[in-house]
Design goal:
The protein has five helices and four strands. It is an alpha+beta fold. The protein folds into two domains: about 40 residues, Winged helix-like DNA-binding domain superfamily/Winged helix DNA-binding domain (Arc Repressor Mutant, subunit A, Orthogonal Bundle); about 80 residues, 2-Layer Sandwich (Alpha-Beta Plaits), CATH 3.30.70.920. A hairpin with a 5-residue loop joins β2 and β3. The relative contact order is 0.16.
């Protein structure tokens, strides 16, 4: 799908606030509601808009610890990678999981309440996964930037 300037403006507004009504969205992008809704539906159907979510504040839920864990696997075969990915996706604490370049290393980000919860996660959830060779953790001391909106190339307003 080729995106025009209006599509990009719709995406920007929805990334900033996914709870906008169609009427308010249309006003912000200078369309009438009917064509605005048609464009949103087209963006959804094309998979450009993946889903709508509410972003919760981790601290308000008692999840004060953000930990990045590098995991090395013993094997590099497809079955080992697939098995790890399937099992790691089952854990709610895992917020993100990336296969990194190198020797079958994964980087995951977990959100937990405290060090004791992290220890339980590592010992009871992570280490039982077959094929894990090494686990290294890094703690986030402070979140400097967190965003969910992707960068969009909008033309400068004149």
């Amino acid at each position: 799908m080729k995106l025009d300037v209006i599509d990009l403006r719709i995406l920007k507004e929805l990334q900033d606030d996914g709870s906008l009504t169609n009427v308010e969205l249309a006003r912000r992008v200078h369309l009438s509601p009917s064509p605005c809704l048609a464009r949103v539906r087209a963006l959804e159907m094309a998979g450009v808009i993946d889903r709508y979510v509410a972003i919760a504040n981790p601290a308000s839920l008692g999840l004060d610890l953000n930990v990045f864990i590098n995991i090395s696997l013993k094997g590099q075969d497809k079955a080992a990678l697939s098995n790890f990915e399937r099992q790691i996706a089952e854990h709610d604490e895992v917020m993100e999981c990336y296969l990194m370049t190198g020797d079958s290393d994964y980087l995951i980000r977990v959100a937990v309440a405290n060090i004791a919860a992290l220890e339980r996660f590592i010992l009871e959830q992570l280490t039982p996964i077959p094929g894990i060779e090494k686990i290294r953790s890094s703690f986030a001391l402070k979140q400097v930037r967190y965003k969910t909106a992707l960068p969009l190339k909008l033309p400068k307003e004149s």
